[in-house]
User: What shape does this take?
Amino acid sequence: MIISARSFRELLDEVCEERRTAAGRSFSNVALAERTGFTHSYIAALRRGRTKPSYITVIALAEALDVHPRFFVGGPRERVPAASLPRRPFAEKLNVLFALVHPPGRPEMTTDAIVTRVRDRGRELDDPLWTISPSTVVDLRSGKTTNPPMRHVVALAEAFGTEPRYFFDDAFAAELEEQLARHHTLNQLGVNALILRAADQPREIRDDILKALVSALRPSSQVEIAVQAALDQRPSSADHGQDALDECGKASDEDTAEETR
Assistant: This one.
């Protein structure tokens, strides 16, 4: 997971020093407060690290300073493409993660399962603030709460195995959701389970399975050519893609154990 190695305070201070007002001065707390509608004392507390921002605070500050909100969580700085700026509701994105990120053949993770993941991570970090309540998750999913503190945004992203950037970059979110949806469909059809079961079979059996699938599914000619090329190469080394599949299997086992605790 990619999160900026520097703190929010450091990033905010850097951008304020670089950006200039019409008078040519760096952004003061008062000037930034006027642009965002926040109080200058709140801006001062953010820049000194005495308080932490919320989701909407990050978006408002990014707009005022002409940087992308994702910059504050380790993403690119430029506000391009325009479609990447966060317009979708937080609840919508969170509900997509609940719908698509869960072990194969099992229903979506419960609120309690996600809360447990967050709290377990907090214990690993020895951070008492790295926590979240079930009611908070419910309110975020329903849209009752629309402005979570940043620590909740980051904690929820990590609990689902994605980057906090997901909540601040609509283009990144759309790409990730497309990948998750494809993976989810493959799980529903049993394709990923077939891959895991067939992985230990002799190469000739795996070749026959692949040929049978190609024959039955009638893919595009480009895919058929790619499959045949892969069969013709017949590399002697181990299949590197199996490592990722093994990781998926381990993750599913961990989720099963976690949800039954």
